[in-house]
C-alpha cells in the first residue's frame, strides 16, 4: 500500500483504467464511426461510391450501432461483458481491416453494419464496466472522463485522413484507422478485463428485478429526457457543415471549418461536465447542459450567418458528451443494481433518435421546408428533453 496513491489527483490505477477506456472509445467511435465523415468525399472523388451509396453505407452503420446497444441490453451482466466486450473489439479490428479491401457498396454496407454493432456494444460496455469498478472504489465522480477519448479521436481521425489523402486511394484510405486500432485494442482490453468487480451483488438482487423494471416511474422521465437529447444533438451534428455551405459563401472558412470547430469544443467537454456534475450535482448539471445546448441550436436558427454557426458548433460540440456522461450516472443512481443494463437501454434509445433525426429532416425538406427550419425540430426536441430532466428526481439518500 502506497500512501502517495491517496494524494489529490489520479491514483495510478484509476488513471490507467480511464486511459484504457478512453482509448477504446476513441477506436470504435471515431476510428470506427466518425472517420467516415471526412473519408466520404474522398471515396466519392475516387469513384468508389456515389453520394447516395455513401449515405446508405452510413445508415447501415447507424443501424448496426442501435443493434449493438440492444445486444448490450440482453447481455448486460459483468460475466457477459467479459465475453462480449473483447469479441466486439476484435470485430471492430477485423471489419476495419476488411474495409481496406472492399469496393462493392453492398459488401461495404454489411461490413459497416457489423462495425456499427461492435461500436454499439463497446460504447455501452466500456463506460458501464469502468463505472461499476469506480463505484467499488468510491470514485464514481471520475467516470465521465472516459469520454475524453471521443473528442481527441475526432481530431485524430480528421488528421489521419488529411495526412494520408494524397498517397492512399479508394478502400486503402481505411489503412490508418486499421493500423491505429490494433495496438490500442490490444492494450485497452488487457487493462479492462483484469478489473475486479464483485458479481455476487447481481446474483443477490436477481429476485428484485421483476418487481423493479428497467423503465418505471423513477426512470421514465430520464428516458424521455435522453430521447429529446438524442434527437436534438444529431441534427446540428449531421447538418451543420451543410447549413454553413448553404448560408455562407463558398470561400468562407466555416464551409470546411465548422466540423473542426465542433471537434475542438468536444475535447474539453467531458472534463468540464464531469467537474460541474461533481460540484453542483449531476441532475442540476444536466439541466444546465440542456439549456446551453438549446442556446447553440437556437443560435443557428434565429441568428444564423457566421456568428450563429460558430455558436452552434461550440455550444453543441461542448455539451453533447456531457449529456451522455451525466445521464449515465443519473441512471445508475436510479437503478444501482442494474446499471449496465440501464446504460445499454439509454444508448439504444439515443441510437434510435440518431436514426430518426436525419429521416425527419429529409421528410421536412421533401415537403418544402428549409434546413434552418429543420434545426427547429432539434430545438423543440431539446426543450422536450429539458422539461423531462426537470421532472426527473433522484432517490433520497438513506
TrEMBL record:
Pfam families in the record: MFS_4
The name this protein goes by in its record: YbfB/YjiJ family MFS transporter
Highest taxon in the source lineage: Bacteria
Subcellular location: Membrane
SUPFAM superfamilies in the record: MFS general substrate transporter (SSF103473)
Keywords: Membrane, Transmembrane, Transmembrane helix
Species annotation: Porticoccus litoralis
Coarse class of the protein's main subcellular location: membrane
Residues annotated as transmembrane: 15-36, 57-77, 114-135, 141-161, 223-246, 253-271, 291-321, 342-361, 367-391
Membrane topology (UniProt): Multi-pass membrane protein
GO molecular function list: transmembrane transporter activity
Gene Ontology cellular-component terms listed: plasma membrane
InterPro entries assigned to the protein according to its UniProt record, in alphabetical order: MFS_4 (IPR010645), MFS_trans_sf (IPR036259), Sugar_transporter_CS (IPR005829)
Amino acid at each position: 500500500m502506497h500512501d502517495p496513491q491517496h494524494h489529490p489527483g489520479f491514483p495510478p490505477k484509476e488513471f490507467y483504467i480511464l486511459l484504457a477506456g478512453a482509448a477504446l472509445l476513441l477506436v470504435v467511435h471515431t476510428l470506427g464511426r466518425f472517420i467516415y465523415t471526412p473519408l466520404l468525399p474522398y471515396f466519392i472523388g475516387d469513384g468508389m461510391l456515389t453520394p447516395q451509396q455513401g449515405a446508405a453505407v452510413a445508415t447501415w452503420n447507424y443501424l448496426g450501432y442501435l443493434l449493438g446497444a440492444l445486444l448490450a441490453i440482453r447481455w448486460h451482466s459483468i460475466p457477459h461483458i467479459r465475453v462480449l466486450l473483447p469479441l466486439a473489439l476484435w470485430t471492430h479490428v477485423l471489419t476495419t481491416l476488411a474495409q481496406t479491401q472492399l469496393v462493392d457498396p453492398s459488401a461495404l454496407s454489411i461490413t459497416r453494419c457489423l462495425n456499427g454493432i461492435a461500436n454499439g456494444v463497446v460504447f455501452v460496455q466500456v463506460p458501464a464496466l469502468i463505472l461499476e469498478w469506480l463505484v467499488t472504489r468510491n470514485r464514481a465522480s471520475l467516470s465521465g472522463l472516459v469520454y475524453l477519448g471521443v473528442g481527441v479521436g475526432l481530431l485524430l481521425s480528421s488528421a489521419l485522413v488529411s495526412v494520408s489523402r494524397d498517397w492512399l486511394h479508394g478502400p486503402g484510405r481505411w489503412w490508418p484507422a486499421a493500423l491505429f486500432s490494433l495496438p490500442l485494442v490490444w492494450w485497452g482490453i488487457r487493462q479492462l478485463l483484469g478489473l475486479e468487480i464483485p458479481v455476487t451483488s447481481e446474483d443477490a438482487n436477481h429476485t428484485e428485478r421483476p418487481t423493479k423494471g428497467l423503465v418505471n416511474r423513477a426512470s421514465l422521465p430520464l428516458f424521455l429526457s435522453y430521447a429529446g437529447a438524442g434527437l436534438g444533438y444529431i441534427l446540428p451534428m449531421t447538418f451543420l457543415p451543410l447549413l454553413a455551405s448553404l448560408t455562407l459563401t463558398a470561400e468562407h472558412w466555416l464551409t470546411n471549418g465548422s466540423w473542426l470547430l465542433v471537434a475542438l469544443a468536444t475535447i474539453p467537454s467531458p472534463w468540464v461536465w464531469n467537474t460541474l456534475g461533481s460540484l453542483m450535482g449531476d441532475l442540476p448539471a444536466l439541466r444546465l447542459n440542456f439549456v446551453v445546448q438549446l442556446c447553440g441550436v437556437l443560435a443557428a436558427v434565429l441568428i444564423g450567418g457566421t456568428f450563429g454557426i460558430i455558436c452552434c458548433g461550440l455550444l453543441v460540440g461542448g455539451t453533447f458528451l456531457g449529456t451522455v456522461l451525466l445521464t449515465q450516472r443519473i441512471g445508475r443512481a436510479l437503478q444501482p443494481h442494474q446499471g449496465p443494463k440501464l446504460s445499454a437501454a439509454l444508448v439504444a434509445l439515443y441510437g434510435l433518435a440518431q436514426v430518426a433525426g436525419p429521416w425527419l429532416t429529409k421528410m421536412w425538406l421533401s415537403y418544402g421546408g428549409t434546413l434552418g427550419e429543420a434545426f427547429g425540430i432539434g430545438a423543440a426536441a431539446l426543450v422536450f428533453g429539458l422539461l423531462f430532466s426537470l421532472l426527473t428526481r433522484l432517490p433520497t439518500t438513506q
